[in-house]
Amino acid sequence: MNNPTSSLVLLFFLLIFTCICEITAKVDKADSKLYIVYLGHKPHDDHELITDSHHDILGQVAGSKEEAKKVMVYSYRHGFSGFAAKLTDSQAKQIGELPGVIRVIQNPLYKTHTSRSWDFLGLSKSDPNNINLLNKTNQGDGVIIGVLDSGIWGDSEAFNDNGLGPIPSRWKASCKSEGNFNATKHCNRKIIGTRWYIKGLMEEKRLNQTMVEKIYNLSPLDDTGHGTHVAYTAAGSYVNNVEYYGLNMGTVRGGAPLARLAIYKVCWKDNVTESHCGGADILAGIDDAIKDGVDILSVSLGGGGGPNFAEVNVESLLGIGSFHAVSHGIPVVAAGGNSGPDSNTIGNTSPWVINVAASNSDREIVTPLILGNNKTILGQGLFKGNEQAFAPLITFANITSHDQIQFIANEVKGKVLMLFFQKEEDMVISLSKLRATGVLAFIVVTRPLAQITDYNQTVFRVPIPFISVDLEQGNQIFDYFAQCESNNQDPTIKLGRPEVREGNKIVLQVPRFSSRGPNSFAPEILKVNI
Ligand SMILES: *[C@@H]1O[C@H](CO)[C@@H](O)[C@H](O)[C@H]1NC(C)=O
Ligand SMILES: *[C@@H]1O[C@H](CO)[C@@H](O)[C@H](O)[C@H]1NC(C)=O
Ligand SMILES: *[C@@H]1O[C@H](CO)[C@@H](O)[C@H](O)[C@H]1NC(C)=O
Ligand SMILES: *[C@@H]1O[C@H](CO)[C@@H](O)[C@H](O)[C@H]1NC(C)=O
Ligand SMILES: *[C@@H]1O[C@H](CO)[C@@H](O)[C@H](O)[C@H]1NC(C)=O
Ligand SMILES: *[C@@H]1O[C@H](CO)[C@@H](O)[C@H](O)[C@H]1NC(C)=O
Question: Residues lining ligand 1, judged by CB closer than 6 Å?
Answer without folding.
Answer: 125, 132, 135
